[in-house]
């Protein structure tokens, strides 16, 4: 290979494919568990250029990004930037990505269902959990409309002018 690194259009990052043509913070934000602000913090802490494309990075830089989050911590950033503060079992602050995040969230939901908390009951019934209204939105299943009485249907039929095939009105 030559001195210049080959541009990669698809980059494997945290076990998923990410578009290499995107700028670095936006490409990192495509990974589940990393938002734009977290991506900017990671890029800043690693000393990478935020205006570079992900496909322009060397393999060492990509490994550096992955190794930065392997211990589930983002070093030298405030705790409020983590996506899992005060974990239920361990009590420590963590930052989870991809399948780890999905696993922990699923366990949280199952724990809430098991202890029959309000959120757990709402999850088990498939209803909205965070206090949203359910009277008009979030409906599933067969659409229910307004039913008219037969008298109202007959009155509506009489109001419609009936036309023949030649376009003239019939006298009724």
| Strand segment tally | 2
What characteristic shape results from the CA principal axes? elongated
How would you classify the helix and strand content by structural class?
mainly alpha
Q: What does the main sheet amount to?
A: 2 strands, antiparallel
Order of SSEs, N→C? Answer: EEHHHHHH
Contiguous runs where pLDDT drops below 50 for at least 5 residues:
none
Oligomeric assembly: single chain
Rg, alpha carbons: 29 Å
Approximately how much beta-strand content do the residues carry? Answer: under 5%
For the biggest β-sheet, the strand order reads: 1-2
The helix content, as a percent range, equals 25-40%
Count of helices?
6
C-alpha end-to-end distance = 89 Å
Taking all residues together, what is the mean pLDDT?
83
Summarize this structure as a short list of keywords or feature phrases.
5% strand, 172 residues, two-stranded antiparallel sheet, mainly alpha, 6 helices, elongated
């Amino acid at each position: 290979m030559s001195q210049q690194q080959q541009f990669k259009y698809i980059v494997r990052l945290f076990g998923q494919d990410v578009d290499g043509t995107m700028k670095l913070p936006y490409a990192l934000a495509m990974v589940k568990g990393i938002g734009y602000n977290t991506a900017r913090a990671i890029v800043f802490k690693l000393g990478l250029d935020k205006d570079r494309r992900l496909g322009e990075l060397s393999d060492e830089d990509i490994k550096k990004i992955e190794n930065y989050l392997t211990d589930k911590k983002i070093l030298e950033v405030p705790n409020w930037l983590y996506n899992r503060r005060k974990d239920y079992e361990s009590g420590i602050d963590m930052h989870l990505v991809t399948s780890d995040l999905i696993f922990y969230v699923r366990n949280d939901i199952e724990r809430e269902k098991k202890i029959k908390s309000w959120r757990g009951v709402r999850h088990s019934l498939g209803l909205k959990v965070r206090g949203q209204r359910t009277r008009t939105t979030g409906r599933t299943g067969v659409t229910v409309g307004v039913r008219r009485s037969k008298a109202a249907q007959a009155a509506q039929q009489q109001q419609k002018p009936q036309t023949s095939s030649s376009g003239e009105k019939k006298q009724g």
